[in-house]
Design brief:
With about 350 residues, the protein is mainly α. About 50% of the residues lie in helices and about 10% in strands. The chain contains 14 helices and six strands. The model has no long low-confidence stretch (mean pLDDT about 85).
């Protein structure tokens, strides 16, 4: 594909062209659109000698030759220099806007940190190893961010760059060359049977939030799946649902506790639970319920899923079955609950009085 060169004169327009500096402007077509790109790094001056001008001509011709190759590549679906100059911030925001409500919240938070660190513009070609290391340092040094949040936000950048590779915007992801922030192993917080009963016995003004959490304790569903749970997902006392997070389909038999919750929710149409679309709002409401009880643990909504798993383990249910019920793609994710129960047993044994021999 041809690239036309044009002269763009600079400075005082009242002077004759031979007394004015100029730059070369490239004129070409890209995806049916006419592009004019001025080469700003190379300026010709009236005082240039022939050798200097020839040297600048060689630079320009090299750029033109490279651009013609790249335009040919674009035509054949290969990487385009123009695409690499696109704004990564805008691209990241557009990807986040396509996510479901629960996931979108994380992308939005990542975007805020991106803009705080960089501003509203950075091209794909400026996303280098050095830039990524600096952004990682910025996140780590934010005292308000837990390490797991740093890991999550950095993973969103990684996901966006991987998507850019699929769309032929970049050829490789520079994140693969650096050490990503490590995710910390967090304490698994769950409720005992007595604490679940305490919640049941506590009057609360928002029954949908209370019942939704208890339903999570009885089924192991994530908050994203509980928010999207519709009556047509329930048939013959069993839930059949495609998980929002993993996209795996789970089949969960409903026990008597779960069925009682559903009977209390019959007043709702379409969706079983009438909840805020924002997870943080649901958690705020749920924590108000916890404050009405004598439960001293730092409980959040996801603890319902932890409670489901640990209660099953404590009753002797095998890990493989629990893994299937929870929709885990890797049984290692389920093993952490067995570890929690083992630690609880060990603590109980060690609490026994030491008798004199």
């Amino acid at each position: 594909m041809s690239v036309n060169k044009r002269i763009k004169y600079l400075g005082n327009s009242k002077l004759s062209n031979k007394n004015r500096p100029y730059r070369i402007q490239l004129d070409y077509q890209l995806n049916g659109k006419r592009i004019r790109e001025t080469i700003k790094d190379t300026t010709y001056y009236p005082t240039d000698t022939k050798d200097i001008k020839d040297q600048k001509d060689r630079i320009i011709n090299k750029i033109v030759a490279g651009l013609e190759i790249e335009l040919g590549n674009t035509k054949n679906g290969l990487i385009s220099r123009q695409l690499q100059k696109a704004n990564f911030i805008e691209y990241f925001e557009s990807l986040g806007n396509k996510k479901n409500t629960n996931t979108k919240e994380t992308w939005t938070n990542t975007l805020k940190h991106l803009i705080d660190f960089q501003g509203k513009k950075i091209s794909f070609q400026e996303i280098t190893i050095n830039w990524l290391e600096k952004f990682k340092g910025y996140l780590i040094n934010d005292k308000e961010l837990a390490m797991n949040s740093v890991n999550t936000y950095f993973n969103k950048i990684n996901a966006a760059l991987n998507q850019a590779i699929k769309e032929n915007i970049i050829s490789e992801n520079p994140i693969r060359f650096i050490d990503r922030p490590k995710k910390e192993e967090t304490e698994i917080v769950f409720l005992s049977e007595d604490e679940v009963q305490t919640l049941i016995d506590t009057d609360f003004w928002d029954n949908d939030t209370k019942n939704a959490f208890l339903f999570s304790c009885y089924t192991g569903l994530r908050i994203s799946d509980i928010k999207s749970l519709e009556w047509n997902h329930i048939k013959d006392n069993r839930i059949q649902l495609r998980q929002t997070k993993t996209k795996n389909t789970v089949y969960i038999p409903l026990n008597e506790n779960a069925i009682n919750i559903l009977n209390n929710q019959k007043h709702n149409e379409n969706f079983v639970f009438k909840l805020s679309e924002h997870t943080c709002s649901i958690n705020r409401t749920f924590k108000k319920l916890i404050k009405l009880t004598n439960i001293k643990k730092k409980v959040h909504f996801h603890c319902g899923r932890h409670t489901f798993a640990t209660l099953l383990v404590s009753k002797g249910t095998d890990i493989f079955t629990i893994s299937k019920l929870m929709g885990h793609s890797d049984i290692k994710s389920t093993m952490i609950y067995a570890k929690v129960i083992d630690e609880k047993k060990e603590k109980a044994v060690n609490s026994m009085t030491t008798f004199k021999i």
